[in-house]
Amino acid sequence: MREEATVDLVHIEDIKRLKSRYCRYIDSKRWDRLKDRFTPDLQLGGSTIIDGDGSTFVADLARRLEAAMTAHHCHTPEIRLTGPNAAEGVWAMMDLIEWPYPVDLKNFSGARSFHGTGFYEERYRWDNGQWRIAFICLTRTRFEQLIHGARPSGFDVFAGLRGFTPPSRDWMR
Questions:
Q1: Rounded CA gap, 20 and 12, in Å?
Q2: What pLDDT digit, counting tens, does each position of 55-108 carry?
Q3: Is the pTM above the cut of 0.85?
Q4: Is the Cα dihedral 7, 83, 125, 61 positive or negative?
Q5: Is 114 within 8 Å of 146 (Cβ atoms)?
Q6: Beta carbons within 10 angstroms of residue 79's beta carbon
């Protein structure tokens, strides 16, 4: 294998890890770590967010998702390097969001949970010694409200799972 091809594969693997951390940091509510995954000039679907560290985007996510149980999965990445310090990618995605109380969403009033699928389109840039997300756009192909009875206060999604330990927020920084 050519030496350049090996280096390209290392960069592509680093970008896959970046996206994995993006999902894990949202689901584990590690907002402090999430904001470091973005370039200072992050663009969200065409709107530039200039705040120096992605904190505006992350603060909005935290506000909407802090009380929710979330599961974000990204699959089948298509990543290509577009320059020595640039890359782009498309990821199939699936998410499941559940709040302990009704919320008002764009398409649903009083929703407590939804399941969605779609695609992330992203651009990446080598910045300060690591790959970061410079552009992110989520296009949804499915978004459906889940119907279920209200869960009692203090409901534990891990209750009844014998021998299972909930994930630690500090596991694998």
A1: 12
A2: 888 998 999 899 999 999 999 999 999 999 999 999 999 999 999 888 887 767
A3: no
A4: negative
A5: yes
A6: 19
Q: Tell me whether residue 160 is exposed, middle or buried, using C-beta atoms within 10 angstroms of its C-beta: 0 to 12, 13 to 18, 19 or more.
A: exposed
54 φ/ψ angles, rounded to the nearest 5 degrees: 75, 10
User: How far apart are the C-alpha atoms of 171 and 167, rounded to whole Å?
Assistant: 7
For 7-34, the pLDDT digits (tens) are 899 999 999 999 999 999 999 999 999 9
* Structure tokens, 46: 């065409």
Instruction: Report the alpha-carbon distance of residue 32 to residue 59 in Å, rounded.
Output: 10
The structural domains of the chain, ordered by start, are: 3-145 (3.10.450.50)
